[in-house]
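Complex 93.
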Amino acid sequence: MTDASDKPDFEALRARRNEQVRKVIDETAASLGVEPGKVVHNFDPDACYCDCPRGPCEHDFQGWRDFEDGSGGESICKRCGMGAMSHCLRTAE
Ligand SMILES: [Zn+2]
Ligand SMILES: [Zn+2]
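Predicted structure with zinc ion bound:
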């Protein structure tokens, strides 16, 4: 490691998370008696790593999106598009 930055290694963290998610998907497939590749899921392996509220978070809420009804807007993650609001709700303790 020559990089002295204190940023977490999100690549590695995501790889580990994806591995765990795949395991769960495989186990679900096994319990359902279907092939692992046939399980329908909407997991996105490129989605930001987020272990909030305590862990490292890869989201970058510098983006912005206007609400369709024109009543304003909200900050969204520049990387995956998750709204800052739903991030809050999902990670609230
Ligand atoms: Zn987060
Ligand atoms: Zn994100």
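The chain has a mean pLDDT of 90.
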